[in-house]
Amino acid sequence: MNTPSELPIWAAWIVVALAISGSLLALTGSVGLIVFKRFYERVHAPTLGATLGMALIVIGSTMFWSFVEGRLALKDLLIGVFLTVTTPVTLVLLARAAVYRDRVEGDDHIPPE
């Protein structure tokens, strides 16, 4: 199989379901940026949505390219690994910087130590 048009219909439905589910999870995380009021609440929602949504999209993409190329295609998993590592690290660094800033400024609404 060399073209996407030769993809079996059942595989196409699974790939589409994974891609749409992942996109909806990422959208849910993005909506959290608007809904939540405080920084500490806002920073958590997109991280979860992006990580879980990315996982479903990467699984769907890997499945799609595996069927199209006729062999196991693992190149998309590398993108998933990088995003899985960097997203939580970014969350921790942003949260620590915000806590430090709020403690220096004397804000009373910071998380406890």
From TrEMBL:
Organism domain of life: Bacteria
Membrane-traversing stretches: 12-36, 48-65, 77-95
Keywords attached to this entry: Membrane, Transmembrane, Transmembrane helix
InterPro entries: PhaG_MnhG_YufB
UniProt organism field: Brevundimonas faecalis
UniProt name for this protein: Multicomponent K+:H+ antiporter subunit G
Lineage start: Bacteria, Pseudomonadati, Pseudomonadota, Alphaproteobacteria, Caulobacterales
